[in-house]
Amino acid sequence: MEKELFKNKEPLARLQMLQDNCAAIEKITYPHQFSEEEMEARKTSLANLDIEMSELEAEKKAVQDRIKEQRGKLIEDIKRKYEDVTDECYKFLDRETRTACYYNGNGDLVRERPMEAQEMQKTIQEDLAATGTDY
Question: Which backbone phi and psi does 109 adopt, to 5 degrees?
Fold first, then answer.
């Protein structure tokens, strides 16, 4: 058999001649050699996929790092059974027990410590309040 049939005909005429002269029409799978253009197109597609994959890997790493950081903080909080909070608190001085007490906005005692030397000195308002006189 010849390697090529009806190559000198127009594409539609070639198709008609193939149909008219064949023994049967069957669907089969066969190898098709790529042209230079097809090879270049496939190489370009592969390069684009590699770039896309690399970008996705970088995004994945960033997300994993963020999740690991959050996970680490949660594990640390669970181990310690508390978290550090920075909040505006209200300091009260108890001169009888010589302690400074800090309360948060909810009125909860959040820290207690011994009074420092400068805190032990009464202010003018405290002195006047203790004597009961107004100024």
Answer: -70, 120
